[in-house]
Amino acid sequence: MSFNLGSVNERLSKNVFHTDSQPHISIDQERARATGSGKRLVAVCPAHVYSENDDGTIAIETAACLECGTCLVVADPGVLTWHYPAGAMGVQFREG
Prior knowledge:
Elements: H1 8-12, E1 16-18, E2 25-27, H2 29-35, H3 37-44, E3 50-52, E4 58-60, H4 70-74, E5 80-82, E6 90-92
Antiparallel strand pairs: 1-6, 2-5, 3-4
């Protein structure tokens, strides 16, 4: 018996994101640049929440956040301020 579960991207596309009026992630741009954390965030985030602007600052698209915590593991202390979105906001997983 075999199952076709689809690709990871196909499965993740079924998730629903409820955007909070207040972002749940913020970044200290100076510290991110000084420590190299910004480039690590861009490289490892599975949801591509982080991207690098032409001026080297890091842009954040919190509406795509999977709340997995990968960014907290790779960022140096003090680079990110991160908390779970309030109430029923954030990601709602439709398929594991």
